[in-house]
Design brief:
Number of strands: 0
Number of domains: 2
Distance between the termini: 29 Å
Number of helices: 8
Radius of gyration: 16 Å
Largest sheet: none
């Protein structure tokens, strides 16, 4: 999954418009023109679509954590210059304040089975022997589960 796809999915899950997405960046003390966000949200086949850099996605996720969980005192965390699915998954887990059993329930809600051991391996340090890279399929199922959870809240 690329950053643009994840960004579009999060916008849909949260029900945010372009302005609200821009405001999330401000939560991480980053000013961004709304037209830049609009270009990242374009569909893949749109010729004016611009690829979202990892550092901008990292800033967005940091802002989302601040927005949904509250901003901590002091200096904000430095955004990662290079992202992978494990980092994105970890930041989303923090932002949505999800415990392992809640994440397992999200997977179950989209008919995807994952063990607690598999899940914990995604959140370990890469140097750990138990670390496991989170592939696109697992991240996609997680986002689908989040979407299902938010749709149920609205109804």
């Amino acid at each position: 999954m690329d950053n643009n796809d994840i960004f579009r999915r999060l916008r849909y899950i949260l029900g945010y418009n372009d302005l609200k997405m821009t405001e999330v960046f401000a939560q991480a003390d980053h000013v961004l023109p709304q037209q830049e966000v609009t270009l990242w949200l374009k569909k893949d086949e749109d010729p004016v679509k611009v690829d979202m850099p990892d550092i901008k996605m990292s800033i967005f996720l940091n802002g989302l954590i601040n927005q949904l969980r509250g901003k901590k005192e002091g200096a904000q965390p430095e955004p990662e210059k290079v992202l992978n699915n494990n980092i994105i998954f970890r930041k989303l887990r923090i932002a949505f304040d999800l415990q392992s059993d809640e994440i397992l329930d999200l997977y179950e809600s989209v008919d995807k089975s994952i063990s607690a051991h598999e899940l914990s391996a995604f959140f370990r340090k890469p140097s750990s022997s138990k670390y496991r890279a989170c592939n696109d399929q697992y991240l996609r199922h997680f986002l689908n589960g989040l979407q299902t959870k938010f749709e149920k809240k609205e109804n």
